[in-house]
Amino acid sequence: MSRVEAILVFTADGCPHCRAIVEDFRARNVRFREINLSRERGEMEHLHTLCWEHRLPVVADHERISIGFRGGSSTFAELGLE
């Protein structure tokens, strides 16, 4: 699946907001690619090409970037990513 064609959802283990958005997208049959930064640390650079935010989840939908889910987000520090 091409990065351009898919909605990208950057997540991390232990983030309740990340888990909630993934569950919501799956329940609504939204096609997306999950990039778990806890498991794919090399993708952090990819995230930083899109935005400099240090909170998750991050959703990249073509040229639009959104941070958090339903008003909640977790910091990189809280998730052990910094």
Q: What features would you describe in this structure?
A:
The protein has 82 residues and is α+β, with helices and mostly antiparallel strands. The protein has one domain (7-75): Glutaredoxin. Helices cover 23% and strands 27% of the residues. It is built from 2 helices and 6 strands; from the N terminus they run E-H-E-H-E-E-E-E. The protein has helices spanning 16-27, 44-50; strands at 7-11, 32-36, 55-56, 58-61, 64-67, 74-75. The longest helix has 12 residues, at 16-27. It is globular, with a radius of gyration of 12 Å.
Which structural class do the helices and strands define?
Answer: alpha+beta
Mean pLDDT over the full residue set: 92
- Please write the CATH class name: Alpha Beta
Physical arrangement of strands within the biggest beta sheet = 2-1-4-5
Assign the CATH architecture. Answer: 3-Layer(aba) Sandwich
CATH superfamily: Glutaredoxin
Sketch the topology as an H/E string, one letter per element. Answer: EHEHEEEE
Which percent range fits the helix content? 10-25%
Q: What low-confidence regions span 5 or more consecutive residues with pLDDT below 50?
A: none
The third-level CATH topology is Glutaredoxin
Quick one: biggest sheet?
Answer: 4 strands, mixed
Q: Tell me the number of strands.
A: 6
Strand content: 25-35%
| First and last CA, distance | 29 Å
Name the shape in a single word. globular
Annotation field: number of helices: 2
What is the count of structural domains?
1
The value of Rg in angstroms is 12 Å
